[in-house]
Amino acid sequence: MAEALVDRFGPEVAVQIGEMIRTADPLFDVEAFTAAALTGYAELGLTDRAQAICDALVPALPAQPCAAIELISASLPPRGVAQRWQGMDSFVLMPFGMYIAEYGLDCFEASMAAQYEITRRFTSEFSIRAFIEHRYEPTMARLRHWVHDPDEHVRRLVSEGTRPRLPWAGQLQIFRDDPEPVLELLEVLKDDPSDYVRRSVANNLNDIAKDHPERVVDLCRRWWPEGSPERRRLVRHGLRTLVKAGDPGALAVLGYKEDDAIAVASLSVEPQYAVIGSTIRIRAEIGNTEGGERAALVDLRLEFARPRGRTSAKVFKGRELHLGPGESALVVKKVSLAQHSTRRHYPGEHRVAVLVNGRETASLTFEVGAEDAVMAAASLPGEDDG
Predict the structure, then answer these.
(1) Are residues 176 and 305 in the same domain?
(2) Among 52, 109, 334, 380, which residue has the least CB neighbours within 10 Å?
(3) What residue numbers bound the domain in which 281 lies?
């Protein structure tokens, strides 16, 4: 069994942070600091563990926050060391970012310098948000400067830190209300040489599209015609939520339009009667019934039975097709009905629909039985059992 994420942020993290600070300040009391940080540590989740270490830093660092943040900067390991980190090794710097976000707002230059260096080793995408909220003008001026930084990690901080709906972070309501300042930054980064940065730009666009779909579609419509293959991949990824929702404007940007010539010749689910814990196979044959080449984006929407007659839907990515006159293609998707913490399954009638260029074109229903239905079927007497 894989090691739990929280277990990889164990007591050794507090010790490591204490030793890092002692390299910059030989008088730093590592033992007292770690004793304070680890009180009740075992019962905490990952983020709360990082917060406990941050809280222990407050009495251990210099009382003046600017001096404390300068000491944090001096404590950071050389970049060559950080570049050899693997997995969650870099999360050791998370408490530093928390301290800067909580105590560094009045130490703008020291805080910006520290976040710049932290993001080159880990990330400052969470701590920078406090400065966007409380020190908006100077922070945005700094981000407009950082879009041109030679380090891809710093450029990514610009796009990732301004995401209105960044996971694991509080939403930036100012950008949910008005995304224009963010879009100006993304305009500069849309053709960034780093895929790491471009994927962040796409994720930011996807966030913005949830509140301002028309604005994102208009922007992508302008980016698409002369776009490089890399930019077009960015646009596709940025429009993914709108495409799954069948937004006509987003689909049109990618070249997919409502077209009655694209038809579903056949649709099946195997087995027709499935049980929780098994896997189903959805097969859809898509055909071009008229002349001329047709473009089709085919997705599959599965509506799962829920308690009390309710349903929940999930769209599964199918295929992008280009069909000549009379041509057809098969779209096949396996879907697991195993129980997961993120998706629970219930017996009852399920429905699958084929979405062609965002429009439902065909559907059918099938039954899913309880897990114990397998055992019940196995216990039934056969013809030779008498």
Answers:
(1) no
(2) 380
(3) 262-374
